[in-house]
Amino acid sequence: MLTLTSTETRARALRTAAALGARDQGLTVWEAPQFLSLDRWLAETWAASWPNEQILHPVQELAQWMACVDADPVAEDLLSTKTIARQLRAADRLVASHHIDLSNAPAWTPEQAAFQRWLPQLNAERQSRGELSAAAIPAAFAERLRQGLIRPPEAVALDFPYAGLLLNPSQRAALQALEQTGTRLQHVAPGATVPASSARIFADAEAERRACAAQIAKLLGALSDTATLPVLVVATANPDADRAALEDALQTALRLTPAHGAASAWRFERADALTSNPWAAAALDILSLRLWDNRFSTVSRLLLSGAQWQGPQRAAATRLETQLRERCAPRIHLRDFVTHADPGFRDGWEALEQVVRDEPRRATPGDWVEHFGRRLQALGWGRSDERDSEQWQSTEAVRESLQQLAVLDRQLGAISFEAATGWFGELLRSRRFAPRVDAIQPILICDFEAACETPADARWILGVDDSNVLGRSLNQPFIARELLTQANVPGASPDSRLQRARAMTAAWRQQTNELHLSMPLLDDTGAQQHPSGLLGSDVRWTSATAAFETAHGIPATLIRTPEPALPPITDPAGDGIRGGTRLLQTCAQSLFAAMVQFRLGAEPMNEPANGLDPRAQGQLIHAALAAIWTELGHSQALGRMSASDLEALVDAHLDHLLPAALPTHRYPRLVIESERARIGRLLVAWLQHEQRRSEPFTVLAHERAAEVMFEDLPLRFRVDRLDRVDTAEGSRYLILDYKTGRDVQPGGWQADRLREPQLPLYASPEAIAALGIERADGIAFAHVHANRRRIASATNWAARLIDDDPTPRRQPDFDTLLADTHARLRDLTRAFLVGQADYVPGALRDSPLQVLIRDPLTDDAEADA
Predict the structure, then answer these.
(1) Helix, strand, coil % over all residues of the chain, rounded to 5
(2) DSSP labels, 49-66
(3) Cα separation of 375 and 348, whole Å?
(4) pLDDT top residue among 640 and 844
(5) Burial 337-373 (b: 16+ CB within 10 A, else e)
(6) What CA–CA distance (Å, rounded) separates 787 from 801?
(7) Which residues contact 435 (CB under 8 A, 6 or more apart)?
(8) pLDDT tens digits, residue range 140-178?
(9) Is the pLDDT of residue 694 over 70?
(10) Which of 299, 403, 275, 424 is CA-nearest to residue 352?
(11) Spatial distance between the Cα atoms of 778 and 793, rounded to a whole number of angstroms
(12) Which of 34, 473, 573, 670 is 20 to 30 Å from 824 by CA-CA measure?
């Protein structure tokens, strides 16, 4: 006999239970019972009667509503037509499924008035085109049944737990039409109820999830090898939001991770959108590429995709991502892929570039399907020598969604490339997808309502506090609240929410052997919560103590194990330990950070900047100043130049340097001209500032590179500029470091708060010898900024080099400063070499490496924020 269920979740569970039961009886061939959800059976039966209408895809409905909104004058005041269209589509479905009459409905708001104006127009268009929304199928089925175009079955079993509250009036009307035409409807009894096996209150949601996972692991671990796996249901109010936390708890308890290469023991009743599938994400990124100006986030995601690239291609794609990150971001052109790819990795990018060049500016969605197919073929998307079931299912699902793009021809007409990729993304988002696995997955994770629909050996219902059990109220701005209440739409009124919650909590006790209820005492904000009173007076709540967690084998929240000491570095060069001043700067910040970066190689990736890269801007300023001082040589030549002379000097050197620093194929002409003007003004102002220096000087070197052995650690560095200053006491040597970005203070040179060790390092005996000078008499930051031009110095002959520049506060004697700072640098270097990796709380605040360590100071700051 045909058995109809209220949802596809229950139909799938009943089909699985029937198949496993037949297998356990030793049967090898059997007639499978027919379990279908009511919606699926109505749609299939209606379609089998050869109707004239065609069912609209949900994305077609969205496109129709977007067209309605765009054609109305109110569209000019909307920020997002698609967002409004989604809400209108939901209102349209409520009207159809709950028989809401809008003919004499109140319109208290402009939204309600607009919906009442648009819906009759859209329904008339659908009728003229022979189109039908999915929500209208039950009514269409009942009409064809009354007309004798559908042959009713003799009998149907109705398996509707949850008191049938999941059925809407349209579905009930279809069942009533079946009964009126002679079909015998038999209701399946829900079965006996069971009391709650346990009801626990945990300190927080994390402890609650860990307890649930530990109990499941204990239950599964006690099974024999020949035992039939039980059906275990874990329900939360919002499984999508809890997905990562639940998977983490189950992986920990079951000691199973993706590295095992086996299918997980759990599945989610509501699968992720297809966009989260790695093969779908790679396809969407390929289809989003343009000839010009591709976003680096899209490029990086595609090149680092584990689904798209296999074997040697994966390494080539990673190298290409690094090249594009360092040389081309943030504006990446398709030609850059060909230019920077390895020789054996270029063919696909060249083919893709040609495909993109041949694409039209506008085409119908059906034509875009063909163009997009050629793009995917050019890069070999979906092809693999080791294709597995998951990849095959995923790529087939993406191809099906791509073919569905063609059904939008009537609604959209000719559209642009951007619109086509946007609608393809909408198709992927509208489809829920999870690859089927051959292994039995005994654990089902679902929401509260789906838990009622799934027969189970044991159920765990998590988070059963007052607010979660009662559920949220319905927010529908396009239909008056009184109409929703009259139609008894779920969530429209307090009474409907209460009725639904009572039926749901009663259904939890049915068709299961065990029922475990739990909740956290505190919510995410720290507010205390209370168990729902709808769970029944027989539920006895107890607090989950540490003894309870120990008895059930629940792992501690965090198990700390001491890290072994790092071995000392006996041969830095042989071990590949080399660095520049950044190594010592990192040591001064945190020895742990220095160990992570320079011994383990965990280097944070540089994020491409929006607009011009500040590093490129700084390099251009450094190069320009080096070229200018190569020509001038000394302060006397600078002092003889007028403002116009300086402008001409700067312009001449920028003419030579700009084409390489800001190539025209990468940056728009207006951006290059604007940056040229900005840097030109900045350099002229800086040179005028240096004209005010108190004493004459000669520039001995600029951008001079050197290598030293500092406490047996090989270091490389580059000095921005070296001056010989002619003072009343004789010649003095000054080392300058240009600062074109962040503001740094001379206080960072001091040993007790060492943050900027590079200039004191340049003044060390080892560096002085490498630079080929007698001594270092002063160090200085040259702040080349538009609004704060100054030279912050520490010397052995003057407090400041320009009379108006501020004097550093509490600056010790220069020789004392160097002696203390050099001693500190030597201590840090020796500590790094012997393997120390100490961490001081707060040392990595605002550092990309902060994610590697649990820091109470930074964690508290984030919590306060």
Answers:
(1) 50, 15, 35
(2) T--S-EEPPHHHHHHHHH
(3) 10
(4) 640
(5) bbebbeeebbebbebbbebbeebeeebbbebbbebbb
(6) 19
(7) 389, 390, 393, 394
(8) 999 999 999 999 999 999 988 765 667 899 999 999 999
(9) yes
(10) 299
(11) 7
(12) 573
SS3 (DSSP) at 733: strand
Residue 679 in contact with residue 784, Cβ under 8 Å? no
Token output for 320: 């290409």
Cα–Cα dist 862/865, whole Å: 5
Q: Is the pLDDT of residue 849 over 90?
A: no
Tokens of 764: 């060390």
Quote the CA–CA distance of 84 and 63 in Å, as a whole number: 11
How far does Cα 44 stand from its chain's mean position?
Answer: 38
- Return d(Cα 587, Cα 591) in angstroms, integer: 5
Task: For residue 606, give the amino acid letter.
Answer: N
Q: How far apart are CA 640 and CA 721, in angstroms?
A: 21
Please give the full DSSP string across 240-281, using - where no structure is assigned.
HHHHHHHHHHHHHHHT--GGG-S--SEEESSPPBGGGSHHHH
Beta strand segments in 38-128, E? 54-55
Q: In what helix (H) or strand (E) does residue 129 lie, and over which residues does it extend?
A: helix 110-129
Evaluate the omega torsion of the peptide bond into residue 330 and state whether it is cis, within 30 degrees of 0: yes
pLDDT tens across 669-691, in order? Answer: 888 888 899 999 999 999 999 99
Please state, as a whole number, how many other Cβ atoms lie within 10 Å of the Cβ of residue 179: 12
Residue 537 has a CB neighbour count (10 Å cut-off) of: 6
Could you count the other beta carbons within 10 Å of the beta carbon of residue 9?
Answer: 21
Angle, helix 169-180 to helix 81-97, in steps of 10 degrees: 30
Q: Which residue has the tokens 């707060």?
A: 842
Pairing of strands 198-202, 542-543: parallel
Q: What is the pLDDT of residues 741-758, one digit of tens each?
A: 766 777 788 887 888 899
Decide: 535 and 469 in contact? Cβ < 8 Å: yes
